[in-house]
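Please complete every field before forwarding. Incomplete forms are returned to the sender.

SECTION A: IDENTIFIERS
Entry label: holo-234
Bound molecule: pyridoxal-5'-phosphate
Molecule representation: SMILES string

SECTION B: INPUTS
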Amino acid sequence: MEYIKENLKSVKERISRAEEKSGRQNGSVTLIAVSKTYPPELINEAIENGVTDIGENRVQELMEKYDKVKSVRWHLIGHLQKNKVKYIIDKIALIHSVDSLALAEEINKQAKKIGKIQEILLEVNVSGEKSKFGLTPKDCLAAAEEISKLENVRIRGLMTVAPNTDDEELLRSVFSGLKQISLDIKENLADTIDMSILSMGMTNDFPIAIECGATMVRVGTGIFGKRSALERGY
Ligand SMILES: *Cc1c(COP(=O)(O)O)cnc(C)c1O
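SECTION C: PREDICTED COMPLEX
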């Protein structure tokens, strides 16, 4: 699959350019290859070509692929139901989609059982779209404060999914909004909380996200090609 190698090269070049443009150090942004709907063979191909981090958004699909994929850091980037936490707790390096205290408490409980400190991000619905999951910007600080008290969970930063649009100004306002929320949290809870990760930006908008401060971008179609619209309802 020559195209995966080519696509990866081009995505990495665009990441470097965005890093330079915004005065950030080369290598300061982590690329997460989003592999939902793609089979393990293609994921392994990406790993052979240097991908270190893989993102899936459904627990069921992740479970099906997990044993067939080479050693890699797994990220859960989609909505997580409390009753599914137990299935993935031993598999995931970073859960991006924590959007309630109740979910964080369940993660804490399951992590404790296996003696793990689970790293998480708080998902924020910056744009306020009804279709999107995430904490509201105004609930974020209080949630962060409560969640930071849990022993087996460690907050590392924030995540957002921007609207599906080409409106660059709107995208910038959403990405800068997430950055601002992270600064506010840092200012209020500096001693107890780590806000070093901002997970934002997908195939359509990752260079803009990087310019606005993203430290992790989640790129699917830009690496693996277009997802079939019929497949699994995407
Ligand atoms: C699918 C998905 C992505 C990747 O989207 P692309 O447009 O394929 O790059 C990123 N983040 C989340 C949460 C996703 O569900």
